[in-house]
Design goal:
This protein has 294 residues and is of the alpha/beta class. It has one domain: Aldolase class I (TIM Barrel). It is built from twelve helices and eight strands. It has an eight-stranded parallel β-barrel with strand order 1-2-3-4-5-6-7-8, surrounded by seven helices. Keywords: Decarboxylase, Lyase, Pyrimidine biosynthesis. Pathway: Pyrimidine metabolism; UMP biosynthesis via de novo pathway; UMP from orotate: step 2/2. It catalyses: orotidine 5'-phosphate + H(+) = UMP + CO2.
């Protein structure tokens, strides 16, 4: 009688995004650099506004920064505008950036209900997908519960979500600052949901909030025990020195996002690195100064 084959070893649980992000921020600094191939940026780099130009731009940014910044954030729309060939460039960028050690945050701002939200989650948060990313931006304004397929998928794959809360565009206030029947702002209700998802997680939860660095003062409780993506630094007018005023005691969990402020330094690889290093140093100074003042 032959011995039966032993059962296969179960796959280990993936390390949660929040833990991986905390480590990356502590070792590489907290800076997130966007990969935003605007038509104007392609032309500024001397590139054509087509798939060839997109490919050259994207490869240069990944080569320059993926082995040194904590997070790279490709904006999906600037790739999607070229159709399937543009998405293929995006797929390659995601794979190469992750292989070089950067965490990839897909800036897709997806938000829908039911099976459609599940399909978006499968696109970015399923390890078998060619666009699998470490995290994705999502919109909760069909109700926070509409994000449940993405929340569940992220937990399974060890990925993260960044949920729009208080965005840097001025139009956002008409929805996000609106007052609910309970007296809280809509943004605060969303932040409270995020805090519940991250409850008792250490060292950092995997459900983050998007809160603009341009706000001046957030006016909400940002204690969500998760990362706070802060767009608006650089071309939109905010500076690293503004971060403590906006984020207060939560500033250590801020992931400041810079796009054009760094990308305008291209196409020279060393100039891109120098620009990212300069912003990173300014962020570190601002955060350490705020923490030292407490």
């Amino acid at each position: 009688m032959t011995a039966s084959a032993s059962a296969p070893e179960p796959e280990p649980e993936p390390e949660p995004f929040g833990a991986r992000l905390r480590r990356a921020m502590d070792t590489r600094g907290p800076l997130c650099v966007g990969i935003d191939p605007h038509s104007s940026l392609l032309h500024a780099w001397g590139l054509s506004d087509d798939v060839a130009g997109l490919t050259s731009f994207t490869r240069t940014v990944v080569e320059a920064l993926a082995d040194r910044v904590a997070v790279l954030k490709p904006q999906s729309a600037f790739f999607e505008r070229f159709g399937s060939r543009g998405v293929a460039v995006l797929e390659q960028a995601v794979a190469e950036a992750r292989a070089a050690g950067a965490l990839v945050l897909m800036d897709a701002k997806r938000g829908d209900i039911g099976s459609t939200m599940a399909a978006y989650a499968a696109t970015y948060l399923d390890k078998d997908s060619p666009l699998f990313s470490d995290a994705v931006t999502v919109s909760p304004y069909l109700g926070f519960g509409s994000l449940r397929p993405a929340l569940d998928a992220a937990r399974i794959s060890g990925s993260g979500l960044f949920v729009l809360a208080l965005t840097s565009n001025p139009e956002g206030a008409e929805v996000q600052r609106a007052t609910t029947a309970g007296g809280s702002s809509v943004a605060q209700v969303m932040l409270d949901h995020m805090a519940a998802e991250n409850a008792e997680v250490t060292p950092l939860g995997s459900v983050g909030a998007v809160v603009g660095a341009t706000l001046g003062e957030a006016g909400v409780n940002l204690a969500v025990n998760g990362p706070l993506l802060a767009p608006g630094i650089g071309a939109q007018g905010a500076t690293p020195a503004d971060l403590p005023g906006v984020f207060g005691s939560a500033v250590r969990n801020v992931v400041p996002s810079v796009s054009r402020g760094v990308l305008r330094a291209g196409p020279d690889v060393y100039a891109l690195r120098a620009a990212a290093e300069r912003f990173g140093d300014e962020v570190r100074t601002a955060v350490e100064g705020a923490e030292g003042a407490r």
